[in-house]
Design brief:
Layout (H helix, E strand, L loop, with lengths): L6 H14 L11 H38 L6 H10 L6 H10 L1 H11 L1
Helix pairs in contact: 1-2, 2-4, 4-5
């Protein structure tokens, strides 16, 4: 009796991966083994960098808040400490936006902390 192989499922699996690697350069888009490796590595990078993106944005917000608070004679750490003492619940994203785009509103927050 001849060996039975489920070619339909195997082809569907390969097509799914080749579809996901469309737009890549060279053999990464059309050679099965290269495309499979490239896709797996790309998915690992995507997972890792979703976490790294959160870290880098937090760093950016801290830099912006620090730059916005320095003209008022305070450091970032002192400002954040006083914010928490006064129970002002503004997160770093909002504070950075205020410091950059709405300096008068940021000044009001600084005055309420001092």
């Amino acid at each position: 009796m001849p060996r039975s192989v489920n070619v339909v499922a195997a082809r569907a699996r390969r097509k799914k991966i080749l579809k996901l690697t469309r737009g890549q350069f060279g053999r990464r888009k059309n050679v099965w083994t290269v495309a499979k490796n490239s896709l797996e590595k790309g998915l690992l990078y995507a997972y890792r960098d979703r976490k790294a993106k959160k870290r880098s944005f937090r760093n950016l917000w801290i830099v912006r808040i620090n730059a916005g608070i320095r003209p008022y004679g305070m450091s970032y750490s002192a400002f954040m400490g006083k914010l928490h003492q006064k129970n002002i619940d503004l997160n770093r994203k909002v504070l950075a936006d205020l410091a950059m785009n709405h300096p008068e509103a940021f000044k009001a927050v600084v005055d309420s902390v001092k």
